[in-house]
Amino acid sequence: MAFRWIGKSNDGNTVTLNKLVECPVKYPEYATDTWLSTNQDIVRKGMVLDVETTGLNQTDDVVIEIGMRQFDFNKNTGEILRLGKSYSAFQDPGRPLSPEIIALTGITDADLEGQKIDWAHVDQLISETCLVIAHNAKFDRPFIDRKSKTSTERIWGCSFKQVDWNSKGFTSPKLELLNIYHGFFTDSHRALNDVDALLYLLSHSAHDTDKTYLFELTGNARRMMTHVIASSAPFESKEHLKTRGYSWDNTNRFWSKIIFKDDVKNEITWLEDTVYCGPFNGIQRDIALMDNFK
User: pTM above the 0.85 mark?
Assistant: First the structure.
């Protein structure tokens, strides 16, 4: 299915990209202060969050920058109704950054010297929301959970996993590419820049449904997930499993993936037909909503 590339000329030969300035979300006309105050039963407060870190190791690396922005949304339509509080801060990691991180983020050791994130304030902002969204929540959440108690008590959504970008014609779910396909770009890989870019992206409507991407994400964030473990899978089935989206756990020596609970029946049928050639010999573990992406 072809996607709608915003900014492409009518002849298809050129594309115009606009630099994102803050978060230019367009609110629906009905979202007046009066409407918001009298329709609190369908208004929900969410948050988009992003971190920059010293590296990819969630045990040894640490956060060096956090960006977060609250927003109100219509739970029935997925429309963003109002932007709320934001927070952005640096954290001195106590050690020099690698050249790779400096090149990726544009953050320098001088930027971080003596800086500190106010984690109590982060906790307060998270506590005011019902949903925390990150573009790769499996990466961001563990870093936040280590520092924030309220984070562990919230449902997290992942715009990387819980929006089906592939079915909409996008060949990659990377945020930078999705931004470009939707007609805008940001300067650097920085936390609040990425937060505003993601929130603006989620405010767009899918060309095939006219529902916002946020509507799909919030719906999927409320669906139960199940960890399917293909233990004792025959060695010769590994390519089938890889193609199906399973990951190899080198510590526990099994293939597994996390899917929606209501898709488990079909998944088990596939495993029995393609992998085990007989009864399913693995494990299913349901995941509580608040434990997603931990």
Answer: yes
